[in-house]
Input
Amino acid sequence: MTVSKDDLIDFVYDEVRMLDEGRYDDWMALWTADGMYWMPLDWKQADPIHETSLMWEDQFMLRLRIERLKGARTFSQKPKSRCHHVIQRPYVDLIDDEAGKYVVTTQMHYVETRLDDQFLLAVTARHDLVLQDGALKIAQKRVDILNCDAAFGNIQLLP
Amino acid sequence: MTTYRTRNDIEALVTPEQVHRDVYISDELFRLEMKHLFANTWVFVGHDSQVPNKGDYYTTQIGDQPVIMVRHTDNEVKVLYNRCPHKGTKIAIDRNGNTGKFFRCPYHAWSFKTDGCLLAIPLKKGYADTGFEKTENSKGMKAVGAVMNYRGFVFARLAEEGIGFEDYFGGSLSSFDNMVDRSPAGRLEVVGQPLRYMHKCNWKMLVENQTDTCHPMVAHESSAGTAVQIFEELGLPKDGPKPPAMEIIAPFMSPYEFFEDMGIRTWPNGHGHTGVHHSIHSDYSAIPGYFEQMVEAYGEEKAKAILGENRHNTVYFPNIMIKGPIQQLRNFIPLGPDKTLVESWIYRLVDAPDQLVARTAMYNRMINAPTSIVGHDDLEMYERAQEGLASDGLEWVNVQRLYPGDEEDFDHEAVENGTTERQMRNQFHAWVKFMIATMPDDAAVLEAAE
Output
């Protein structure tokens, strides 16, 4: 099976739309069983494990994050946050049909709001995708925040 | 408006079992804290591994005072006010760097040795016969009152005179000892960048929360409780390897009895820790090879004693907390009565297996990151409290849990039930002590005002 450039670009657009619309069960289905979500703390950080990252989350952690948002006693989500992605057309960096591996890099503006507060993050997302049973899945999503060294308040949803 | 002028005014803010809300919301009291409390106490500056080589520096602040921590040519770590004696320009603004053998102000090129002494001024003849050498500014960059490097952790007292380091910390240094002794080499090294998390609340709320053992199972039910629930739904074996979230987050859901039994110890001058007998860090999985390394370094008996301590949070008054078993230090940096920057640092145990620093980094991001589902609910509580304290309905905040009903003795070490709010009372006892230590007495203040 071959994957076209459009397939990869559409995948990223679909993914951020799920996040913006809060369709988290659909979003969780996009991942491989051992897929990891990485948000580095340091600029150009190379090691997600042996120094602090903002996020380095396996499927258990992501599911916990998603389930928590639905909870009745999730106090920091009373009222709930909303988010909004504006993305640039993704760069398709790698198409390797033989290995079933693909890499896409996307520049995004991520906006999150709750009550009277709203903030903007300029982020670069790198998707490492694999083909599993005829469908593209996320093996790793790396989200680099332009001002990763700044002090943030709560970032509660997912860029 | 000036409301708090005298020692009596400050003392009246703290009763044996309550504190007045102004300690959290008053701009005037915040300024007095910066002037008195953060000058008279020993405040954490940084770790000496942040400045491993001569000329390496790190910029930070003590209270509201900008400072530079620098490795001098004699290999000692110095702490200088980050201000050119000429016009006040900050000498360094990057967080880390190497300045070589001297600092050079970017405005007029005045230069200083790394202990602050004035080295040179361009066109210095312009100061001849002006009396310049009689000014304090002609000496160079000002150093803070006193500096102590305790096993790599650098503390400073801004005030020229005051309590000594050992007198101030006393027995509480055992928590630092335990954290450092966990390295087979007896040494820690800073790892990566700190988490930087902005809180719209008073810094003391964060410090109090470190020994608040009645909040985890309530405020963190949405994260810790949901973790337990997912673990059960997945039907994973209870005795097998746990998902990281279960090892790190789930213990927050432990019942009240667990926290009651774990105990709280307090020391004089506002220091104290939770987890005397056990803690949420007690049941972490063993790392292969580590115990053997510790036995080789210390002998079996001492190795067991070091690793048998599972102290949870140790508060070093006024504004840091360390976790010995995790090698984490959190610095609650006051920026305003309702604004606090929380930096969460981690350290590597030199010569220990890498899996340990991996767990340390995991704890830091899972619990204390701005992206942490645990941190989110803590911050929510602090910010709601900061807003709620504006209410005129009640003026006092209650810290009465397990208050014995008569005057408490905070001048001696004590171990009590793990859910007591004694450590919070201990902090406010110390707060008054170091707020008024260098205030003129009441009669002098009132006389001057007349």
